[in-house]
């Protein structure tokens, strides 16, 4: 057991996350307590010029909790990793920002969300983006592979956050940027591990 979770607990968490996001892949409307789609992007002040260059279906897929581009961390030619890429909206925005000489990889645990991401990519002319299924706790990339790592609303879903952060630091180049937008717990953490697991994908 690590961080209070058994192997069975971790399996239940992953199954819960996958089940929820298989529904999100179809349509995120009504599945979150915050605005999604174009409304969410506007509320988070994404660059309207970039949004205007993307198909409506791509914008409809958005269900992030923050704007990882608000810091201006991405410049042309850089390599970017998007952890928990979902339907691919942020990855495609990053691909526009880094340009044809750059590279963007989006990862997610949900095969359904990745299917949506590939569909969204096919609606664009972008050639510098790819997606793959894997966990942030075990990134299949070489050391110092990325200039920037972004993530929006994914780290709260990861059981072993210290391990995931260690992996992120491994794949980041020296002087690289990590930009995370996420939900945080403002009250006390429940001592009831079962209750925490049951609420994981809520």
Determine the CATH superfamily. Vaccinia Virus protein VP39
Mean pLDDT: 86
Helix content: 25-40%
Briefly note the CATH topology name: Rossmann fold
Distance between the termini: 23 Å
| CATH class identity | Alpha Beta
Strand element count? 5
Query: Into which percentage range does the β-strand content fall?
Result: 15-25%
Low-confidence stretches: none
Q: What profile does the largest beta sheet have?
A: 5 strands, parallel
Q: Can you count the helices?
A: 8
Shape label: globular
Task: Write down the secondary-structure element order.
Answer: HHHHEHEHEEHEH
For this structure, the quaternary state is single chain
- Provide the structure class: alpha/beta
The radius of gyration computed from the alpha-carbon positions, rounded to a whole number of angstroms, is 16 Å
Structural overview:
It holds the Pfam family Methyltransf_31. Belongs to the methyltransferase superfamily. Arsenite methyltransferase family. Its EC number is 2.1.1.137. With 202 residues, this protein is α/β, with parallel strands linked by helices. It has a single domain, classed as Vaccinia Virus protein VP39 (Rossmann fold), CATH 3.40.50. It is 38% helix and 16% strand. The chain has a 5-stranded parallel sheet. Helix 7 links the parallel strand 4 and strand 5. Helix 1 runs parallel beside helix 6. The longest helix is centred in the first third of the chain and has 20 residues. The chain is globular and about 45 Å long. The mean pLDDT is 86.
